[in-house]
Specification:
Blueprint: H1 2-13, E1 26-29, H2 33-46, E2 54-57, H3 63-70, E3 76-79, H4 81-91, E4 100-104, H5 106-111, H6 115-123, E5 130-134, E6 168-174, H7 180-191, E7 198-201, H8 205-217, E8 223-225, H9 231-242, E9 248-251, H10 253-256, E10 266-269, H11 276-283, E11 293-299, H12 304-314, E12 326-327, H13 331-345, H14 348-367, H15 373-379, H16 398-420, H17 429-442, H18 449-462, H19 479-522, H20 529-533, H21 550-556, H22 561-568, H23 577-584, E13 587-590, E14 595-598, E15 606-608, E16 614-616, H24 623-647, H25 653-667, H26 674-689, H27 695-734
Parallel strand pairs: 1-3, 1-4, 2-3, 4-5, 6-11, 6-12, 7-9, 7-10, 8-9, 10-11
Antiparallel strand pairs: 13-14, 15-16
Helix pairs in contact: 1-2, 4-6, 7-13, 8-14, 12-15, 16-18, 24-25
Length: about 725
């Protein structure tokens, strides 16, 4: 994808043009630091034989170095939107020479709230520039990117039908929310090889920290990256993973943009993504360049609707019985890992992080995009009890296969009984337990202990007692017993109605299956009565109320809160002065403070640019003017030293030595670190001391020197007197 916009850029720019008063001819904007660094690295690799100057502008780096880099008249600028706009405002850049502008991960740029920065930056570009918007997921409607100032846009979409690589296997692991971390440990220890590179996606940065600590406690080397992490730490942790120092990387969605790992083998979604597009961005990092890969997604009851939404978007069937794609971890291993996790989180350095992550998960569920209404309706029919152990955790044991076959045969038998309208025989709990005991005793020799344990746990999970806890060993006149008897008598009709409805549903499904079988066997000769009554659709003239790809395009759409809020708001201004004043003093409900608060002025703390866009006032700080003054001072010092060297070349001695020292200081390069800047300032101070001084300055320096020498002499005499007294006291003590 990166090469798709770099190669045309090289073709357009051809060679370096460093004209006086000119500027950059290509601009590439990326949403994250990692993606910008990756693009910069690819430019160096692909364009190493082209004489093109490229600079990198990132937030968190030294602005003085970036001022100097812009003054080198580069051909290509790779930047993040916030820092680049800061440079534009500080330096008053015009960007009139830009011919080629790229918005990498365009949908993410608009979703992350860079609208104001992009608007002001793009207004500085000439009208004749070429705009290129790139992303792995782009919607068909380019209205979402109207802010980019597109003129006669052309949409190029590749492989919309195959949204994920064919070599990528999607697998889903079901567990309870409390066992999510235990399921993760089971995957890493039982399924994924230790040498395989694995990326784990977590919902928030708090979960990233918690998962990293848990994996460290469990003896699994890992590193973690999230957007709020320090830039140096992000770079170090990412390098650990790419250089294979560790094989597990825990990230958030924002920080993962720009991670280029060609040999990635596994992706684990610890928290299920809220949008299908986000799922594609996550798992798309795996199975690249013809390699195979596996994407595991851990889900619970809260995520079933989003899972159905995802499969509607991918246009793939979701079969609960497919144990190669969806299932649960082995119960005994999961329980063991869950106990270990509970011990870990009780440790002093994990307890606080665990509590914060639980609160963050509640906010994550609330703020996550809601699933569609149809998926929520289908989620209620999702049969969790029929999930078996995922095949990746080992070959399916015979007991579970027998249990599944027994369940299917039981359903078929039940459907036949309903069809014959025979009443169902009620079996008591004691009879069923006795039968189960006989069965297990007879087959104990052929079933291994692990299979028996899994089968027994599955039966316990499906067991539903016929009585409540209030009816255990009751007294004849107990109030709880009478209350439960009345409630059971009251609810019997509703329960019977519900059972009758379930039976009717199963009968309807069985009739449909029989009708389909008959229709498939008989072909066009024997059609069912229901199919003959169905209206025929003229495909040539029929217009559906929704497009065929409506679900796909809804998944690709840019989810911008600002755009949604703009379409939803309605402003009605009063027709009097009082009404207009009240309009300016509007209030809104604060969910945290639980009260109405005044709506803040949206332009408070902002400045208006020359293009009419309101941006943060902190952008205009005057740092560029200070930098220019400082660099001009250095240039004057260099010129003065050069003149002094020319004038005193025949004098030799101290003058020549000072001139040589001055030139050595000016030509020295300092690293962009704290001590590098400190050494540069110290050397500059030495250089300034070489200048000629006025008589007043000479007298002042001599007086300060004499005062310093007298103070040092007095202190030295005082120390000598103190030592003499101590020595005399010591001699008297010996006598």
């Amino acid at each position: 994808k990166t090469g798709c916009f770099l190669i045309p850029m090289f073709e357009k720019l051809r060679q370096r043009e460093a004209k006086a008063g000119g500027g950059a001819r290509a601009l590439i904007l990326s949403p994250t630091r990692e993606l910008a660094i990756q693009t910069f690295r690819f430019i160096k690799q692909l364009g190493r034989f082209m004489d093109l100057k490229t600079i990198l502008v990132l937030g968190g780096d030294s602005m003085d170095a970036q001022f100097a880099a812009v003054h080198t008249l580069p051909d290509i600028i790779v930047a993040t939107p916030g820092r680049f706009l800061h440079l534009c405002v500080e330096m008053d850049l015009k960007l009139g020479s830009v011919q080629y502008c790229v918005l990498d991960e365009a949908d993410r740029l608009f979703e992350m709230g860079f609208g104001e920065q992009l608007s002001d930056t793009l207004k500085r570009l000439p009208e004749a520039r070429q705009m290129v918007l790139f992303s792995a997921t782009l919607p068909k409607m380019m209205v979402d990117f109207a802010m980019a100032g597109l003129c006669q846009p052309v949409l190029v979409r590749l492989d919309v039908e195959s949204k994920i690589p064919e070599a990528l296997a999607l697998k889903y692991v079901y567990c309870r929310p409390a066992e999510r971390y235990a399921a993760l440990l089971v995957l890493l220890r039982e399924t994924i090889p230790r040498t395989a590179q694995t990326v784990i996606f977590a919902g928030t940065q708090h979960h990233v920290e918690l998962v990293s600590l848990i994996l460290t406690k469990a003896g699994i080397p890992n590193s973690h990256v999230y957007s709020a992490l320090d830039a140096s730490a992000r770079k170090i942790n990412t390098a650990k993973f790419t250089m294979r120092k560790v094989n597990v990387l825990v990230v958030t969605d924002i920080a993962a943009r720009g991670l280029d790992i060609p040999s990635l083998d596994y992706v684990i979604n610890l928290h299920f993504p809220g949008k299908p597009k986000l799922f594609i961005h996550r798992v798309g990092r795996c199975a690249r360049a013809g390699r195979s890969g596996v994407a595991y997604s851990i889900f619970s009851n809260d995520d079933i609707a989003h899972l159905i939404d995802l499969h509607m978007f991918l246009d793939r069937p979701l079969e609960v019985s497919d144990r190669a794609a969806i299932g649960i971890p082995p119960a005994d291993i999961l329980e063991t890992e869950h106990q270990l996790v509970q011990e870990y989180v009780q440790h002093i350095d994990l307890a606080t992080v665990f509590r914060v992550s639980n609160n963050a998960y509640k906010q994550y569920i609330v703020t996550r995009p809601a699933a569609s209404a149809s998926s929520n309706k289908r989620a209620k029919q999702f049969k969790i009890d029929e999930l078996g152990v995922l095949e990746d955790f080992g070959t399916a044991d015979s007991a579970e296969l027998a249990q599944e076959e027994g369940r299917k045969s039981g359903k078929a038998k039940k459907a036949k009984e309903v069809k014959k309208k025979k009443p169902l025989k009620k079996v008591s709990a004691a009879t069923s337990d006795k039968a189960y005991q006989e069965t297990t005793n007879s087959s104990s020799s052929s079933v291994d202990p692990d299979a028996f344990r899994n089968d027994f746990l599955a039966r316990m999970k499906n067991y539903r007692p016929s009585t409540t806890i209030f009816e255990l060993n009751p007294k004849s006149n107990a109030r709880e017993l009478l209350a439960m008897a009345q409630k059971r008598e009251k609810d019997e009709q509703k329960i019977a109605k519900h059972k009758r409805k379930l039976q009717e549903t199963e009968q309807e499904e069985s009739r449909k299956m029989e009708a389909d079988v008959v229709e498939a066997n008989d072909g066009h000769e024997a059609r069912s009565a229901k199919r003959s009554k169905r209206q025929r659709r003229d495909e040539e003239h029929f217009i559906a109320y929704t497009a065929k790809d409506a679900v796909e395009e809804d998944g690709y759409a840019v989810d911008s809160f600002a755009r949604q809020a703009t379409t939803a708001e309605l402003w009605v201004v009063g027709d009097t002065a009082d009404g207009q004043r009240m309009h300016r003093q509007l209030q809104k409900w604060d969910r945290k403070k639980k009260k109405m608060v005044n709506v803040e002025n949206p332009r408070a703390g902002k400045i208006r640019t020359e293009h009419g866009v309101w941006i943060a006032a902190s952008y205009k700080t005057g740092r560029y003017d200070k930098w220019k003054d400082r660099t001009k001072l250095d240039e004057r010092l260099a010129a003065a030293q050069a003149q002094q060297e020319d004038s005193d070349s025949d004098a030799g001695g101290d003058a020549a030595g000072s001139a040589a020292a001055a030139s050595a200081i000016l030509q020295k390069q300092y690293p962009h670190t704290h001590w590098g800047r400190h050494n540069a300032k110290a050397d500059l101070r030495k250089l300034r001391d070489m200048d000629l001084k006025t008589p007043e300055q000479i007298v002042k320096n001599r007086l300060e020197k004499d005062k310093k020498l007298s103070r040092e002499k007095a202190a030295r005499l005082k120390n000598i007197a103190r030592k003499k007294k101590a020595l005399a006291r010591k001699k008297r003590g010996k006598k």
